[in-house]
Write a structure and sequence with these properties.
- By secondary structure, the chain is an alpha/beta fold.
- The protein folds into three domains: 2-162, Ribosomal Protein S5, domain 2 (2-Layer Sandwich); 189-404, P-loop containing nucleotide triphosphate hydrolases (Rossmann fold, 3-Layer(aba) Sandwich), CATH 3.40.50; 432-494, no CATH class.
- Helices cover 36% and strands 17% of the residues.
- The chain has 20 helices and 18 strands.
- The protein has helices at 34-37, 39-49, 76-86, 116-125, 138-141, 155-162, 196-208, 222-227, 238-250, 273-277, 287-290, 306-310, 313-318, 361-368, 373-377, 403-421, 434-440, 445-458, 462-478, 486-494; strands spanning 2-6, 9-20, 25-29, 58-64, 98-100, 103-104, 110-111, 130-134, 148-152, 212-216, 264-265, 278-279, 284-285, 295-298, 320-325, 328-333, 337-342, 381-385.
- The strands form six sheets. A five-stranded parallel beta sheet has the order 11-14-17-10-18. Strands 1-2-4-3 form a four-stranded mixed beta sheet.
- A hairpin with a 4-residue loop joins strand 12 and strand 13.
- Helix 2 packs across helix 3, helix 16 crosses helix 19 and helix 18 (445-458) packs parallel to helix 20.
- The termini are far apart.
Length: 497
């Protein structure tokens, strides 16, 4: 038995074998791709070079269910075991109740595979209590609890274990010696001079996982401010670690590692729509799924193709992306924070006090119209970033208060308040639906009156109306307030475009 990863989940696959007296051959059926067809030569060489017997018969391998597309080299090990079973070298009872996966080298050793954590999770859901994987993948698979995981280095070692001649002990994760990924070397809030409103918006965005757009002239510090988010976001929870590691493993970004820090993805504006959204002949997660639970950073937002930007609208609302292709339909999670930057015009200096803009009014209008109204409506916070005077750039660090530590304390308070309010389900304010807002974001009468007047005067859409309340809820959490007050609504309204 093995697993066929499909999208974010998978299916159990039974590897059947049959041997008959005829010219020696090996045939694999069951809708496998080229990698599975080539497994015939890998399996044959691995069994022979491991001093095991490859039967001189006509062998047929069936991967059931037959209508399910199979992809990947991790079928090598179950195919080899099926051949050893049909030849009588292994008994059926010795492989029952376990899942096997691994790619074979010609000498019989096992190579790491992608999607190991996906395979382990599906094995557990299907009721299996043992799983055999390449040694390099066991650490990642150990994120799935209550299942025995065996790290195997070769088909010979696996054979001896199944025959109970040389037993392999199940993997036990040692938390004390477990490696911890270093936090990326991104700037802290203390490294940013001035820009108090932008830094405040970053803190609000980090606390409630809100989408953010920073607009301003070149060199004002928009990109640097956005990158401070990496060091402000709370640590990944156990469930989030599993989800993020699964996505990166399915995409082939990692082999046996565990993702321990929140993703910060920053694709270039020349990236194709498929690389952003996901898909392909064999669908893989795109950048929006690789940014799940983390940040999708789009620098110079208007430079991205219009079709790419419009494709973000649905996942920004639904927190998932459905990828439909002719041969597959898969769903990947896409609960990301969109953080973007843009210039006010093509030359970048429209509205700058020190440098004159060289663009015509038509050029400015055309540039700003590259962002559609529905896309801007989905962004919670919009901040204009002005250039900092040169004399303020060289202020000694000793004269600056530790804004980073102060912001971290506020974010921790706000995160704890959200966890308690939403019963430790790790939902953030930005993800609340309209019914949740009525239940968890009560407004005082004064705040409600102010919001209604502002909505009429600013012509806010229904989505914008609720986004103001979500942002105000986060501002109240940062201040340690239970109810949303007038001051919280007032500040939230400042961040609407």
């Amino acid at each position: 038995m093995t697993v066929a990863p499909m999208g974010f989940d998978g299916f159990i696959v039974e590897v059947e074998s049959d041997a008959s007296k005829s010219l020696p051959s090996l045939q694999i059926v069951g809708l496998g791709n080229k990698a599975i067809d080539e497994a015939k030569e890998r399996v044959r060489s691995a069994i022979t070079n491991s001093l095991l017997e490859f039967p001189k018969k006509r062998i047929t391998i069936n991967l059931a269910p037959a209508e399910l597309p199979k992809d990947g080299a991790h079928y090598d090990v179950p195919i080899a075991l099926a051949i050893l079973c049909v030849s009588g070298q292994i008994q059926q009872k010795e492989v029952d109740g376990a899942i096997f996966a691994g790619e074979l080298a010609l000498d019989g050793s096992l190579r790491p595979i992608k999607g190991a954590i996906n395979i382990a999770q599906m094995a557990k859901q299907a009721g299996f209590n043992r799983i055999f994987l390449p040694q390099q993948n066991v650490e990642q698979a150990s994120l799935i609890k209550d299942i025995e995981i065996f790290g195997i280095t070769s088909i010979k070692q696996l054979f001896l274990h199944l025959k109970k001649e040389v037993l392999v002990k199940p993997y036990i994760s040692d938390i004390q010696t477990d490696h911890v990924d270093k936090i990326p070397a991104h700037p802290l809030l203390d490294d940013v001079r001035g820009q108090d409103q932008a830094k405040r918006a970053i803190v609000i965005a980090a606390a409630g996982h809100h989408n953010l757009l920073l607009a301003g002239t070149p060199g004002a510090g928009k990109t640097m401010i956005a990158k401070t988010l990496t060091n402000l976001l709370p640590e990944l929870t156990a469930d989030e670690q599993i989800a993020v590691t699964k996505i990166h493993s399915l995409a082939g970004k990692i082999n046996g590692e565990i993702v321990r820090v929140r993703p910060f993805r920053s694709p270039h504006h020349t990236a194709s729509p498929v690389s952003i959204v996901g898909g392909g002949n064999n669908p893989k997660p795109g950048e929006i799924s690789l940014a799940h639970t983390g940040v999708l950073f789009l620098d110079e937002l208007p430079e991205y193709p219009r079709s790419t930007l419009e494709s973000l609208r649905q996942p920004m609302e639904d927190k998932k992306i459905d990828v439909s292709r002719a041969n597959a339909h898969v769903t990947y999670p896409a609960d990301f924070m969109l953080v973007a930057t843009m210039n006010p015009c093509p030359c970048g200096y429209f509205g700058d006090k020190n440098k004159e803009c060289s663009c015509t009014s038509n050029q400015i209008m055309a540039y700003q119209k590259r962002l559609s109204g529905p896309l801007l409506d989905r962004i919670d916070l919009v901040v204009n970033v002005s250039r900092v005077p040169n004399e303020a750039l060289l202020i000694p660090d000793s004269l600056i208060n530790s804004q980073h530590l102060s912001a971290l304390k506020q974010i921790i308070i706000a995160t704890k308040a959200q966890n308690m309010r939403y019963n430790n389900s790790y939902i953030y304010n930005a993800s609340l639906n309209n019914n949740d807002i009525k239940k968890y974001a009560p407004l005082s009468e004064e705040a409600k009156s102010l919001l209604l007047k502002a909505a009429d005067r600013l012509k806010l859409s229904a989505r914008s109306y609720f986004k103001v309340i979500k942002v105000a809820r986060t501002i109240a959490d940062l201040a340690g307030e239970k109810d949303i007050l007038v001051s919280h609504i007032s500040e939230a309204l400042q961040y609407r475009k």
